[in-house]
Amino acid sequence: MKIARLSVWHLALPLAAPYSLSGGRLKVEALDSTLVRVETDCGLEGWGEACPWGSNYLPAHGPGVRAALETLAPSVLGQDPRAPEAVGRAMDLVLPGHPYAQSAVDIACWDILGKVAGLPLWQLLGGEAEQRIALNSSIPTGDPEQMIARIELAMAAGYGVHSAKIGGEDPARDRARIAAIEAWLPTGQSVTYDVNRAWTPGVALQVLNSVEARGWVEQPCETLEECALVAAKVPQPILLDECLTSLDEHHRAWRHSQVAGLKVKPNRLGGLTKARQARDFSVAVGWQMHVEDVGGTVLADTAAIHLAAATPESHRLASWLAHAHLADDPFPGQGARNLGGWTAPPDLPGIGVVPDAASLGAPVAVHEGGRA
Ligand code: MG
Do 271 and 84 touch, CB atoms closer than 8 A? Predict the structure, then answer.
C-alpha cells in the first residue's frame, strides 16, 4: 500500500469569544487550521489536522504548516501509511523539526492504519478497554469575578476540572485570582493554574509560596530550567506544557526530577507516533498527564482522545476539547464530544471522524505521484 495523493485544506476557525492567556500577553480570536487527506493506491484514505493556537503560543503558525507540507509532500508520497514511524523518518530527513506540520500527516497515517486493521485508534495505541475520559474546561485570563463566572458556566456544562489561565507582570493580581477562586471553589471541583510561561522564577516563588492553593500549577516560566527551579521550592506540584517540544526535552525534564506531570499534545510533538513515545516515557517515570491537542476541530481533538483513552487511568489527568471554543463546528455530531464533563473516543476504525471533502471547498494544494 502506498500513499498516492496528499490534499491540503485551509480552515479559518473563528473562536466563539476572544481568548486571553498568559496574563493577557497572548490573545487569540481565530485559529488557522490545516486539514490533510492522505489517499492510498488502494482507495483507503485517512485524515489529519494541524492547528497551532495562534502564532505565538508555540513556535508554530498556520501558514507555516502549509509551507512545510509543500516541502514534505514529495517525501511522503509513495510511502506505506501503515508504517507511521517510517513516514516520520522520511519527513525528518527532508525537514527536521517542524513537528506541528508533520503531525497532520502522521495522524492521517494512523487513521489509515486503524481502517486497515478494522480497529479504533485507542485500541491500536494500547488501550485495553474503551475508557471514559474526564474533561477539563479552559478558563481565559480575566478578573477574579470574570474567571469565577466562567468556571460556573463550565460547571453547568458538566466540567468538574478547570484550567484557569493566570500569569502577568503584577504578582498581586495573580494572588488575588488564586485566592478568590480557591475561596469560592465548590467541593468536588478542581482547578489547575496555567501560567503559560508568564512568570520569572522570582515572581513564581513569591506567588506560589504565599497562596493556599495546593493543586497543579502548569508551565510557570519560559524554560524547563526555570520551571524546575520553581518546582524545587514551592508546595504545589508543577506540570510542564510548552517547553516539551521533543522526546529529548522529556528526558531532560525527568532529570529535573521535581517535575511531576505534563501535557502530551500530538501537534506540539509531531503527531500520534511521537506523542505515544512521550506518553510511554511519562508513564514509565511515574508522571501524570493531560492528553489533548493544541487546537483545531473535533478531528484533532478526537485523535488526541484516542491516545488519552489508551493511557493508564492512574497516570491520566483530564483532557480538553479545543473544538468547544469554536464559533462553528465543521463536523457536527462526529468524534469526541463533551458528554456532561466526560468524553469517549468513537468505536469506529481509525480516528472515527470523516470530513466531507466536498463541504470543505477546493483544497489549497494537491500533491500526487511519488516513488515507483
Ligand atoms: Mg498549558
Answer: yes
Q: How far apart are CA 167 and CA 147, in angstroms?
A: 13
Number of H helices, E strands in the chain: 12, 13
Q: Give the integer Cα–Cα distance in Å for 58 and 163.
A: 18
- Residues of 136-163 as b/e, b for ≥16 C-beta within 10 angstroms? bbbbbbbebeebbebbeebbeeebbbbb
The rounded distance, in Å, linking the Cα atoms of 76 and 38 is: 9
The CA 94 to ligand 1 mean position distance, Å, reads: 30
Active site residue 265: yes
Question: Concatenated DSSP letters for 284-329?
Answer: HTT-EEEE--SS-SHHHHHHHHHHHHTS-GGGB--B--GGGGBSS-
Question: Which position among 115, 263, 265, 274 bears the catalytic label?
Answer: 265
Cα 274 to ligand 1 centre (Å): 19
274 in active site:
no
Using CA atoms, how far apart are residues 282 and 328, in angstroms rounded to an integer? 35
Strand partners, 39: 5, 45
C-alpha angle 304-310-312 in degrees, rounded to nearest 5 = 120
The pLDDT tens digits for 133-171 are 999 999 999 999 999 999 999 999 999 999 999 998 789
The pLDDT of residue 358 is 93
C-alpha 196 to ligand 1 mean position (Å): 6
Q: Is the pTM of this model over 0.85?
A: yes
Q: Hunting for cell 487546537 — which residue is that?
A: 295
Distance (Å) from CA 322 to ligand 1 centroid = 12
Angle between helices 84-94 and 99-117 (to 10 degrees): 160
Helix (H, G, I), strand (E, B) or coil at 37: strand
Rounded Cα gap, residues 299 and 353, in angstroms: 6
CB 266 within 8 A of CB 243: no
pLDDT digits (tens, 9 = 90+) for 242-298: 999 999 999 999 997 789 999 999 999 999 999 999 999 999 999 999 999 999 999
CB 167 within 8 A of CB 197: yes
